[in-house]
Amino acid sequence: NAGVTQTPKFQVLKTGQSMTLQCAQDMNHNSMYWYRQDPGMGLRLIYYSASEGTTDKGEVPNGYNVSRLNKREFSLRLESAAPSQTSVYFCASRGLGGNEQFFGPGTRLTVL
Amino acid sequence: AQRVTQPEKLLSVFKGAPVELKCNYSYSGSPELFWYVQYSRQRLQLLLRHISRESIKGFTADLNKGETSFHLKKPFAQEEDSAMYYCAPPPPFYNQGGKLIFGQGTELSVKP
User: Fold this and answer.
1) Residue A26 CB: number of other CB atoms within 10 A?
2) Is the pLDDT of residue B66 over 70?
């Protein structure tokens, strides 16, 4: 099993550009999450999807949109990137009956 | 307000010294808590969960309901323990003012 995978690993954008971060898991997990990690701020939840077909806002949703494409995939879209969105983005998933989260390797995004 | 807090952003110790990373919680009901570890530029991975009461890589953590704490301890720190440590409840975790999912993390630096 690959676990949780994310693409791309690195990305540089200019202010105003858009992009989609992809996340997939092969563990048949119901719940999926997007976090951003910034120095001194720890991990902050952007959006989550408790199950296929549902999404909900987390702590810092402004400037982002998500799509739960199917049970495996959960994408995060930046419609108009801003320098404040420079961060490392982590995707995670969790199965039914378990509370442990499994994390992807992260996407390091720089917005110039 | 319900929350999980890690009061120390940075903890620096010498190799062989004891380590204690603090985690305090304040919410009603029976808490379920986890410790995650993130080695440099890697994904987060589960280190300990309080239910299992196990010892991983020499680390232990006991849930103290009287002190509302879940501190992570190791009697003799090793250089390879240098990492970011997060204390976390299972997701999603709501507090009255928003959605606090993770503690802010403590960076452990073990010096030779």
Assistant:
1) 12
2) yes
